[in-house]
Amino acid sequence: VLCVHVLFFCILHLFVLKHSLQYLVTASSGVPNIPEYMGAMMLDDIQLGSCDSINKTVEPKQDWVKKMLENETELLEILTQECFQGWKNFGKCISSLKEQFQSEGVHILQKREGCEWDEKTGEVTGFSQYGYNGEDFVEIDLNRLTWIALKPEAAITKQRWDADSGRTKNKKNFLTNIYPEWMKKSLSYGNSSLQRTVLPSVSLLQKTPSSPVSCYATGFYPKRVMMFWRKDGEEIHEGVDHREILPNDDETFQMNVDLNVSSVKPEDWRRYDCVFQLSNSEQVITKLDKTVIRTNCAKTILCNDGVVAAVVVLSVAAVGFVVYKKKKGKRFK
Predict the structure, then answer these.
(1) Looking at the domain assignment, is residue 266 inside a domain?
(2) Most C-beta atoms within 10 A of its C-beta, which of 53, 71, 151, 220?
């Protein structure tokens, strides 16, 4: 009974309704043929709008965002001001960093800031993080109202920003008041679109007969999902490899979970199935069946690990203009 309660608690914890609003910025120096400044506003991994130093206007990416900005003219003015004031500030910041490091050539300055809101508890968590040339640089500590240097070279920037207490207080106001207000307003306008659910197309993929079988789901929405392998109706963990959820270019998502079948007897395959589950408990169950597995092994070619290329090439479009990954402790890449 205890195990059942623990499992139920874990499932509830996974599906906690947390919303995030992020403003992602990339500014560059020495990179030809792209804007010097590009910004994108994201709500729950959906791009709301963008701006850049060439078009010089805020461009809505959703019909309901366009309607919101038509009604909320003050919000449009703030976003426009934030975009183009940021352009000037980022240009100055890159120049300062180039002078500090005495380096020329290509340089990239990135920003990821915004907030997360727990719809159940009402808790709001703000964040502001900067990356320079693909590495973490500085981030804000909202409790102490100071900046944290994420690498030794950022110490000078930390000291300079700490000295400007007015800027830091204004940043806190944005992260804990203004961003949450924008988020809740956006959620109210885009509720029908953001609350929709779309079940995925699920396939079984395998490179070679000795490779793991990948349960691949694509085209689902929202991102709050579970996918796992079962044996005799019970979730299993041994021999299972969970991959991260990735965005498609149509604002849906994809993911896959691999099962090592090297030690599974042929007669036992029917005991396994892959379960995809949305937060509203809708499910797609796929039986482990050799006859439905997709592979690139042609019947006329010897199919083995040495001669087989990848089963499927997954092309993932970058969301907005910033590639953001928490991998090996790094937020910017």
Answers:
(1) yes
(2) 220
| Token pair listed for 201 | 């197309």
Amino acid, res. 234: E
175 lies in the same domain as 228: no
Residue 29: give its domain's CATH number.
Answer: 3.30.500.10
Say whether the peptide bond before residue 32 is cis (omega within 30 degrees of 0): no
* The domain boundary residue, chosen from 193, 224, 241: 193
Q: Looking at the structure, do residues 38 and 186 belong to the same domain, yes or no?
A: yes
**Under 8 Å CB-to-CB from 321, ≥6 apart: which residues?**
24, 25, 26, 38, 39, 40, 50
Greatest mean pLDDT range, 77-81, 188-192, 320-324: 188-192
SS3 of 239-280:
CEEECCCEECCCCCEEEEEEECCCCCCHHHHHHEEEEEEECC
Q: Based on C-alpha coordinates, what's the Rg of the chain? A: 23
Q: Which of 260, 277, 288 is nearest to 225 (CA)?
A: 277
β-strand 253-259 against 213-220: which pairing, if any?
Answer: antiparallel
Q: Tell me which residue range forms the domain holding 46.
A: 2-193
- Which tokens is 110 given? 């990135």
- What gap in Å lies between CA 139 and CA 326, rounded to an integer? 14
Boundary of a domain, candidates 193, 213, 230: 193
Same domain, residue pair 21 and 80? yes
pLDDT mean over 131-152: 96
Please name the residue that has the structure tokens 């079984």. Answer: 204
Q: Are 293 and 206 in contact (CB under 8 A)?
A: yes
- One domain, residues 222 and 183: no
Give me the torsion for CA of 204, 316, 135, 325, rounded to 10°: -50
> What does the pLDDT look like over 227-275, one tens digit per residue?
999 999 999 999 999 999 999 988 899 999 999 999 999 999 999 999 9
Mean pLDDT confidence for 99-126: 91
Residues 57 and 117 in one domain: yes
What local confidence, expressed as pLDDT, does residue 69 receive? 94
Q: What is the percentage of the chain residues whose pLDDT exceeds 90?
A: 62
